[in-house]
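Predict structure. Input: 6-phosphogluconolactonase, 240 residues.
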Amino acid sequence: MSERFVFADGEQLAIATAARLITAISDAQNARGVAHVVLTGGSNGGALLKAVASSPARDTVDWSRVDLWWGDERFLPAGDAERNEVQARGYLLDALPLEPKRVHVMAASDGGLDLDAAAAAYTSELATASSDGTVPAFDVLMLGVGPDGHVASLFPGHPGYAVTEGTAIAVRESPKPPPERISLTLGAIGAARQVWLLAGGEGKAEAVSQALRGADLPAGAVRGTERTLWLLDRAAASQL
Ligand SMILES: O=C1O[C@H](COP(=O)(O)O)[C@@H](O)[C@H](O)[C@H]1O
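Output follows.
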């Protein structure tokens, strides 16, 4: 059963989610020593990272014991401003004392690997960090919900959404630019302890409503092993 939290607006959504994330990282480190966190791109994911950056509780976390992963990446040259990694570094990561080897970036298109090899490289990196050769048991995996109900780079009716094997896949002809991407699969997402779906703004209202009413959408198909949270603002929740 998923849980819903509705905040007044996008700013409150970002602030509340940042507070929740900082607490969840502390909880994970307290229980297991390190925290594995999966970041999302997109507007709500970006707002959340900015809110963490400006949170007074930010420095209560031992960032050197946080493993950062991405749910998806746009397959673009290193440094491209449309890469989720580049945006995350600018919003937050560059300001944190992270351990570089714990920042698990998906490959860029000019790094010497083609798209399939880049997805395979991420599959290997995930497996190396796991206890069973698949993926780590992510403590928190965040997903921005697109207006069409996509999450990560799994789009409704698109081949990647139907993939049932593997953990990181190459995505071609994405309905949202850029066309080439790397994404975690539904199976990899489902290994997370907590999955948090973030949606703010009127443009997300229909997708949120349909996903929560059982429509066949990626956003409605993801679950955490312990908790599945919908973190919404009033506009995104307006059709519930
Ligand atoms: O392209 C992407 O879009 C989604 C959602 O983005 P939003 O701007 O509509 O919030 C995001 O979840 C994904 O990580 C990203 O690559």
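The domain at 3-229 is CATH 3.40.50.1360 (Rossmann fold).
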